[in-house]
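Here is the promised in-class demo. Please do not try to memorize the tokens; focus on the logic of going from shape to residues.
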């Protein structure tokens, strides 16, 4: 491209901008309507959602007991909070203090 061509910039009027926005909105609607319709089946079953929620590391109310299967995400969260390589001594002390106050 020539330098002269790259320096040209179209000045849009408010009406042109609104017309472009409307056209893009319509094109998006057509695109979305054309997507394959399928039922979401990857989530938790309706009859067991509470049980599944209690197992999820972000929502569990009780920590796993010795011998329980530990979710990898739970292990990762523990590492972020309690690993001496990830935290300073002061951060670790504060984390343990907060846990003690929570119990």
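The designed amino acids, position by position:
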């Amino acid at each position: 491209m020539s330098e002269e061509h790259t320096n040209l910039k179209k000045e849009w009027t408010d009406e042109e901008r609104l017309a472009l926005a409307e056209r893009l909105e319509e094109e998006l609607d057509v695109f979305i309507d054309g997507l394959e319709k399928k039922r979401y089946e990857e989530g938790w079953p309706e009859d067991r959602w509470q049980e599944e929620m209690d197992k999820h590391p972000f929502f569990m109310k009780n920590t796993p007991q010795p011998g329980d299967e530990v979710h990898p995400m739970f292990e990762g969260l523990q590492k972020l909070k309690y690993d001496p390589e990830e935290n300073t001594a002061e951060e670790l002390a504060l984390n343990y203090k907060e846990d003690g106050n929570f119990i």
